[in-house]
Specification:
By secondary structure, the chain is α/β, with parallel strands linked by helices. The chain contains 16 helices and five strands. Bound molecules: zinc ion (ZN). Zinc ion binds next to helix 1.
């Protein structure tokens, strides 16, 4: 058995991660790459202030004769909530908020979304998708035994957002993606959510119902059609301010948004993924990525992160409640679920993937080889 190795700067380690590599000083590829990028993408300074001001002028100019300046997905998570709050309350943007009700919202997330939009005067569209088809697709990912069981969710959310933006003729998308809280993400098990070749292959093998009524977004749509043909733009303003997690949580209380512990716990499905499915089946603890990101952006020390890791990942009763909820939504029996959990993990590369993904992966590996 290979002994566990942990990075000497952040807390990423070898557990469940085939992609981690270490330098001779004991630091890992994730934090070294994040530090390489920090000054290129994160501007919590005068440069960021200027970028933000210039962009706000452009967005407002474009939205001048329209009902909205920009659009954003509101999941009930911290990043999108804080961005919606800043955008509307501090920067004066007229935001169209979009939420997709996929059946996995936690009750607190629902309350938070309503309070946030009401108090920030954001118009909210809640889109209801074909629940039966969505559940069947998510269920097929669980049967496939791959790590990314939230790929259908991520895809559908993005697809709906693009559709609504087009309908309302909105060009600017506010994205809560950010460096400060997300610079490190374990790469070994990720797969692009817009790979419809992959989605269709898994569904063909494990699905039981058609998925023709789901709005799915392909790689072509996501990275070419909307960007180059339709000219839509993704803006990441949280990279232009000093984005501090504790400060954001505190400020959001003024609009009755109450943060709950855990990144992406707003959805019962992502909570299950992070606290149960990935750790139990793949030996992946996603808290390491979140805490390591906070170390890199200087919000906590490595020691604090290690202390945080000592806390139990979940409350046993609570997680059983979540599992029951998920099984009932996905129409799965406990026996089927236990079998899935006990089976050998599968990886995304075990199923068909788009050639674009394959070639990009090859290109990335080649570049890495050259830079080495
Ligand atoms: Zn590291």
């Amino acid at each position: 058995m290979i002994e566990k190795q942990i990075c000497t700067r952040c807390i990423m380690d070898t557990e469940g991660d085939p992609a981690i590599k270490f330098e001779s000083d004991g630091t890992c590829n994730y934090c070294n790459y994040a530090l390489e990028r920090i000054n290129k993408v994160y501007f919590p300074n005068e440069i960021g202030k200027k970028k933000l001001e210039d962009t706000l002028v452009k967005i407002k100019e474009y939205g001048k004769d329209k009902e909205f300046d920009c659009i954003m997905g509101i999941s009930g998570g911290l990043d999108s909530a804080y961005l919606a709050f800043l955008g509307s309350k501090k920067w004066g943007l007229r935001i169209l908020g979009v939420h997709v009700d996929d059946g996995f919202d936690s009750p607190i997330a629902k309350e938070n979304i309503i309070a946030l939009c009401k108090n920030c005067e954001i118009k909210l569209i809640t889109e209801h998708i074909n629940r039966e088809q969505f559940m069947d697709l998510t269920r097929s990912f669980l049967f496939a035994g791959v790590p990314g069981i939230c790929i259908p969710q991520d895809n559908v959310l993005t697809a709906v957002l693009f559709e609504i933006a087009e309908k309302y003729k909105i060009k600017y998308f506010l994205s809560g993606t950010n460096f400060a809280l997300e610079s490190i993400l374990q790469r070994g098990n990720l797969h692009n959510a817009c790979d419809t070749v992959h989605i269709e292959d898994i569904h063909k093998k494990f699905g039981t119902k058609p998925i023709n009524d789901l709005p799915l977004l392909s790689l072509y749509d996501r990275y070419f059609k909307y960007k180059y043909i339709k000219g839509q733009k993704y803006i990441r303003p949280l990279d232009w301010i000093e984005y501090n997690k504790d400060k954001a949580i505190e400020e959001l209380k003024s609009v009755d948004f109450n943060y709950y512990e855990g990144k992406h716990y707003e959805s019962i499905l992502t909570r299950f993924l992070q606290v149960y499915y990935l750790p139990q089946k793949f030996n992946i603890d996603i808290r390491k990525s979140h805490l390591s990101s906070l170390i890199i952006s200087g919000q906590i020390s490595r020691e604090q992160a290690l202390n945080e890791m000592q806390k139990p990942m979940f409350d046993e009763d609570k997680i059983q409640e979540d599992i029951d909820f998920i099984l009932s939504n996905l129409n799965l029996s406990r026996t089927e679920f236990n079998k899935i959990m006990a089976e050998k993990p599968k990886y995304h590369s075990d199923y068909q993937c788009s050639n674009f993904i394959k070639y990009t992966n090859i290109a990335l590996k080649f570049r890495k080889y050259l830079s080495d």
